[in-house]
């Protein structure tokens, strides 16, 4: 009898079985690796927490803080309001930093700010730094009043004679007339008109830009990010 021949067949069968098992395990491991690569972990939000976040009343924020920054837009709309966003009633929320002094920040997801692309550092002397410029691009009240009423609903605010429908990036800093750059700005306690603390910041930045202390883009970004700290942020 040829014992070598009879022993070779079982050994070959054993090696084939082991090889097939290893191949299947490798296939499963590869599949698991692909699944993990294309299926990132998602942290579920508890329904109660989501409901509370959606209905919470804006709380006062520490001075110098703002919500997550959103990119400033570019919109050319001299003399009229451009409807570049569609927002729902109650979707937006102003942040109260100091109600007594009139320090409020707009909701950056609703009002990220926008600038007029026609105004650049090269032509500021003949545009925003020229006396009377803002009058040439400011929309008429008949146009802004309609949009202001809608913005008040979006911010969940009631009409008030001291609330200014304000350009986040002011016209004197080449801000544009668009919904993304306009917001109903509450005023300080005891105010009798729409003059508010942000006006002084806008004037300071305008002078700094026109005297070439800071660039136009730097001033635009600073006031869009946080008008309360913009002067300090720019080292003025």
Automatic annotation (TrEMBL):
PROSITE patterns: PROKAR_LIPOPROTEIN
Signal peptide extent: 1-21
Alphabetized UniProt keyword annotations: Signal
Record bears the keyword Signal: yes
Region (Disordered): 103-122
Organism domain of life: Bacteria
Name of protein: HNH endonuclease
């Amino acid at each position: 009898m040829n014992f070598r021949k009879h022993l070779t067949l079982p050994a070959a069968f054993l090696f084939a079985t082991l090889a097939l098992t290893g191949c299947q395990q490798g296939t499963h491991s590869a599949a698991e690796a692909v699944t993990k690569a294309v299926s990132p972990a998602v942290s579920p939000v508890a329904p109660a927490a989501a409901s509370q976040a959606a209905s919470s009343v804006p709380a006062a924020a520490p001075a110098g803080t703002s919500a997550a920054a959103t990119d400033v837009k570019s919109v050319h709309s001299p003399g009229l309001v451009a409807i570049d966003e569609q927002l729902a009633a109650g979707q937006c929320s102003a942040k109260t930093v100091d109600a007594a002094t009139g320090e409020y920040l707009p909701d950056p997801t609703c009002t990220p700010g926008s600038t007029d692309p026609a105004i650049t550092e090269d032509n500021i002397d003949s545009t925003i730094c020229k006396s009377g410029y803002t009058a040439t691009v400011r929309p008429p009240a008949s146009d802004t009043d309609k949009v202001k009423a809608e913005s008040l609903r979006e911010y969940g605010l009631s009409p008030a004679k001291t609330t200014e429908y304000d350009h986040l990036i002011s016209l004197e800093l080449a801000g544009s007339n668009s919904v993304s750059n306009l917001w109903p700005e509450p005023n300080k306690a005891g105010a009798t008109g729409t003059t508010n603390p942000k006006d002084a910041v806008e004037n300071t930045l305008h002078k700094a830009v026109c005297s070439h202390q800071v660039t136009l883009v730097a001033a635009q970004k600073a006031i869009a990010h946080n008008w309360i700290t913009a002067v300090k942020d720019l080292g003025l």
